[in-house]
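quick one, 302 residues, struct below
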Amino acid sequence: MNKYLKILGTWKFWKELLIMTVGMAITAASVYYFLLPSKLVVGSITGLSIVIGNLLNAAGMAVKVSQVIVVINAILLLLAWLLIGKEFGAKTVYTALILGPLVDFWEKVLPIETILEPGQTSLMNDAWFDLICFVLILSLAQTMLFHINASTGGLDILAKIVNKYLHFDIGASVSIAGIIICCTAFAINPLRLVIIGIIGTWINGIALDYFTASINRRKRVCIISKDHEIIRKYITETLKRGCSLYEVTGGYTGDKTMEVQALLTKTEFADLMEYIRSNNINGFTTAGNVSEIYGRWNEKKH
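---
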């Protein structure tokens, strides 16, 4: 019990709870305002829920899409807990369970009927525009959640499993699982809308990889300098980052010196370069972008 109380008292817990809530509110808005009115079935559990909801309603059962979302997600949550991990599973329990209620929240707070003009059937009144808006907004929310080891639930759980065990990029994992779900739309939609859904799922994967790479991007900095000790101290003591030192030999002069390597954020890299310039430190610097980092890099040394 003390262990859980200690977790509840940390800033990390409340920050991630806020991120998850905001991310799911964004997801719910994209579903309610763009996906549901256009009846598009993009590769997602929400899309599958739309198919199942329409089939059940056609059979005379009054079922809301939000209710179907909750039921399917409840089944998938067990997979998340068993196959991915307790932290991911616990976070996804929260996000998955609030998606349905948040869709209902937007319906009560700002019904789409009050936004639509006469003759409009969807917010953008065009399937392609509805698709693009939904995919971009959803991809942004997914990126926020994946960044803190959470997800929107549903399809993201399947994608995370594929990503973990088959080592596909997260965007490719979303696309593969989503396209399979898209094919279920043949039960309620014509070929045109199914094709639109498949294209939307593909775009979702591309956008997700782009946003993920952008949010994770760091600078790999390599500096060869005789003043390597000054640079090392600035990185470790001021920027609070780790670095590595390598002895190098100049191919032209044969002189031996040291190379300092570090992974920094864009802001930290700018600060380092300003420090080098303002202190007239001589050296040869190269820098490149890195989008994937594994290990404890994010934990600054205090």
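The mean pLDDT is 82.
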